[in-house]
Amino acid sequence: EAGVVQSPRYKIIEKKQPVAFWCNPISGHNTLYWYLQNLGQGPELLIRYENEEAVDDSQLPKDRFSAERLKGVDSTLKIQPAELGDSAVYLCASSLGQGWEPQHFGDGTRLSIL
Amino acid sequence: AQKITQTQPGMFVQEKEAVTLDCTYDTSDPSYGLFWYKQPSSGEMIFLIYQGSYDQQNATEGRYSLNFQKARKSANLVISASQLGDSAMYFCAMRSSNDYKLSFGAGTTVTVRA
Asked: Can you tell me the mean pLDDT for A67-95?
């Protein structure tokens, strides 16, 4: 089966510009996660969706970050405006949302802010 | 709150030898799951192995095994017969039964030498 697909793979923008990341989860996975991974650290959850509903967005900086998951499949994470400290890897993951089955991650988007 | 500690920032291992990666955790939840992920330099997070808090036996998955010591709150990963392709960052993660959010440690870099 196809894995979690993220695009773009790399993104370089100037500060204060907007940026968007896209994620297509594994088919049939109703739970989708966005994680932020700073250099040399483990990922940290930004937001979790169950179908189209954001059930945990407590770690999402809502002044500049937004996310959506229309129709409960693909998801987009947006930053506007981007700041220098947003340079990081943005990982998308999906799971069936049942029991203890693991989360499956995409390759991530590496964001660099100039 | 959950906390994962990986105290080894980096390790070197000779090809074909075994290596043990340490992971200790802290949680007040009686039911939790422990996960190990591998992250090569290319960036994707690859699920390796899972251990449930109520599992009586240590988990094994091919060359990966988990040394689970519940009383000591440790879940060390053992990689047997190391291969050059095992060179990567390894993350220990956990979640509780009532929350799908994964909490990650800081990771351990493994370098396999020929």
From this structure: 95
Alpha-carbon distances, residue A55 vs A19, A59, A96 (angstroms)? 23, 12, 15
Terminal CA-CA length for chain A? 37
Distances (CA, A) of A64 to A17, A46, A113, B43: 11, 13, 15, 25
Which DSSP letter does residue A86 get? G
Chain B hits for A105, Cβ within 8 Å: 37, 44-47
Q: Does B62 touch chain A (CB under 8 A)?
A: no
* Cα A38 from chain centre: 13
Could you give the CA distance from residue B98 to residue A96 in angstroms, rounded to a whole number? 15
Q: Measured between CB atoms, which of B42, B102, B106 is closest to A41?
A: B106
Specify whether the CB–CB gap between A82 and A13 falls below 8 A.
yes
Question: How remote is the C-alpha of A33 from its chain's centroid?
Answer: 6
Query: Does the distance separating the beta carbons of B101 and A105 come in below 8 Å?
Result: no
pLDDT tens column, A61-79: 999 999 999 888 999 999 9
